[in-house]
Amino acid sequence: MKTFEIKEEFILNGSPVKLISGAIHYFRMMPSQWEDSLYNLKALGANTVETYIPWNIHEPVEGQFDFENEKNIFKFIEKAEELGLLVILRPSAYICAEWEFGGMPAWLLNIPNIRLRSTDNRFMEKVENYFGHLLPKLAPYQVTEGGPVIMMQIENEYGSYGMEKEYLRQTKTIMQNCGIDVPLFTADGTWNEVLDSGSLIEDDIFVTGNFGSKSKENTDVLKAFMERHNKKWPLMCMEFWDGWFNRWGEDIVRRDAEDLARDVKEMLEVGSLNLYMFHGGTNFGFNNGSSARGTTDLPQVTSYDYDALLTEEGQPTEKYYAVQRVIKEVCPDVWQAEPRCKTTKALGEYPVTAAVSLFNTVTDIANSIKSAYPLRMEEAGSGYGYILYKLALKNYRRENRLRVIEASDRIHVYLNEEKIKTQTQHEIGEDILLEEINEDANLNIAILLENQGRVNYGHKLNAPTQSKGIRGGVMYDIHFHQGFEQFYLELDAEQLNLIDYTKESDYTAPSFYKFTPEMTEVADTYIDCSKYGKGVIFINGFNLGRYWERGPHASLYCPKDLLKVGKNEIVVFETEGVLIEDLNFVDKPVYK
């Protein structure tokens, strides 16, 4: 039977061990990639893998659980164990991780005035229901049961959000009642305010820090915090940031390989670390998070390359070899090996097969939902993707104004199917002028709204803006309009199959473009989106993620698993009125 204890050092099977770990998120890659990524972590000289577990992908609809394909955390753990790696799990209700809503499911927002990450009974009931399904399935993988899992996280960077220790205690109790008996921990920044607020050190819960440089200074703070509470625990950085995430319209963040290696070496000399990220992967689908800055939420890009030790597709980088070298310098007895390398291919350029305007096929793919006032996305559907609102205004035959009140995140407004305005968060609520139309017919307004991703960190988790869609209403002249028809567009495989391409196309409107490439081989590849506007790409029904002409990324990574030899069906949903004529598979990322 294996054993793992936290004393003055980490003790594995009776002997001291330094944890050298790397973060690999099973949900950000295809299952076929897990083995190579885990092997490369082992070959680096690591002995542990760490992963978050996002609530929203495992309980997408309340009471309905999904652990299939890339969501199969259990097979990921088993693969890690096969390769001789220990496992750290972070299944907390909130994970941050630059992931949509910090991993919390959107359906929570249908509970009026719920206070997330607190002892609000309604929130804790949902956490308990989720943990009651998840944790008993994880329990057999604990080291106490002969498995590889050595630690689990109670909450993530809670000191950067709240200070309600009773919430942490209730979460701990739920976990233990579900059969979790390995050591539990918290992870926070390394300054006293957040350590005081976010830890349960007074309850003997292990404390770790998150940082990416100045290892000696940060661990000194961590050590002093422990000493004030009479603890002599090992020092561990649970997130040693080796790169950073990216947002649309901003420069890509890079970190020098030797600079990272120096800081990693300094950290290993004083304690243990978990490289965040070792392999970043991809925010497939609508799963990218968003940064909260002032009154604006800044959505993050689809790629989660993170400038990590492995690239988005899993190729070792200069950082990999630099960190591998310093691990050997500090820990000369570790096993290391040459990493496995990846090959990406340019699979050719293909012409568009068919196209249709959203306005001409929306009734084929989505149900009409009528209401007096507009519905939020969480009321109309699962809360992700897009929603199209339609309303008919009486024509007073003079210039008038329209205002969309309290909506998130980005809207296109159409008058008689011609776009008249695009508004983002800081513009929504401003006047939209409707020119005089000297006709008897009503003014037909359509509003296409996109949820660009809920915030994953900070003060806005409980803000009204995280409920997507139109929350306030639509004002015509100076009154709120009544009478809405809405079409919820999650754009899942079922909706995509219902698109009627025999209907009329109009590239100036939001449009679906279909491609049917015949392939003689498949390989990891990238789709060049540099000529496109903004939208989403679907590969054989799988949502690959968002693209946007703002950059800095101008391509989407496409794992070979999503393609097939023979005929493929690829759909591009373009919202900016850009004519799309071809689909080009290239062998490396494209940037702007």
UniProtKB/TrEMBL annotation:
InterPro entries referenced in this protein's UniProt entry, alphabetically: B-gal_1-like, BetaGal1-like_ABD1, BetaGal_gal-bd, Galactose-bd-like_sf, GH, Gly_Hdrlase_35_cat, Glyco_hydro_35_CS, Glycoside_Hdrlase_35
One GO molecular-function entry: beta-galactosidase activity
All residue ranges annotated as the Beta-galactosidase galactose-binding domain in the record: 510-568
One Pfam family it belongs to: Glyco_hydro_35
Residues covered by the Beta-galactosidase 1-like first all-beta domain: 374-489
Glycoside hydrolase 35 catalytic domain: residues covered: 9-329
Keywords of this entry: Glycosidase, Hydrolase
This enzyme's EC code(s): 3.2.1.23
Protein name per UniProt: Beta-galactosidase
Organism of origin: Jeotgalibaca porci
